[in-house]
Design brief:
With 283 residues, the chain is mainly beta. Among the domains are: 83 residues, no CATH class; 101 residues, Immunoglobulin-like (Sandwich), CATH 2.60.40.10. A hairpin with a 5-residue loop joins strand 2 and strand 3.
Length: 283
Amino acid sequence: MKIPFGKVILTLVMVSMMVFGSIGTAQASEPLYYYEKYNLIRYDNDRSVNDGDLLKKNSSNYSIYLYRDYYFSSTEGYQGTNGERVFWADISGNYYYVTSTKVQKYSFATRHSDGDFDYYYETIRKCDIITPRKGSFVGTVTGTINQYPSDGLQGDYWYVRKGLVNNNPTLTLSNPGENDYFGKEKAINVSGSVKDVDNGDTLSVKYTINGISTHTNKTLQTITANGSSQSFSNSIPIDSSIPQGIYTLKIWVEDDKGGKSNEISRTIKIDKTSPTMKIIVGK
């Protein structure tokens, strides 16, 4: 009978692990960074052609023009000079046409006729690489530390990492309740939970009791954020600095990078009057 019972216990443990996951500490969220995003400017790294010529022959008068110092159009993807479109080519009869950030190789006919003109391509240095660089600013994006380059190309854009994104902490308040009474014998208990997904931030639980300068923007408790929800509990003593009366207590949490949570307000009543007992003596 012991063996089947042991099997049942083992099965329950395995099921609980499958449902709830392995036992361990909750992992903090990975911090986010700001990235500046830029368009690309594309240009070839070999603009001047010195070891090859393009000959343009006018078939009507047989004049020949020698073309050198080609320019590059990054928007349309061709080499040209003096308003004429040409292609860089090597002696094997290939030209290189620019698309996006790559150079693609195509075959072409050595001799091309265009109306009155025949174009003859001689040996021209091939376009071996197109080098993109940072262009105009597009906007700001966020991502983890390895999601984009720190300063470089990814896809069709250039990214520059600028700094950490600071997330505001959040606050949940359990105590005090609305219209709770406090007095000499009962301090104001403040409890609840805070959460900041930025692991390692220093969190300060703060409070203000309206109209009392010594209890304005005071730090109640300090916590180091671990990325998950964290409980806190502390108390505000009722001393001579807090007269009897009705007050608004405000609670919030701040991090050390300027982030601030929502404020939660509670109406509290301070009663320092000792109870009296009236003794009635019977006749």
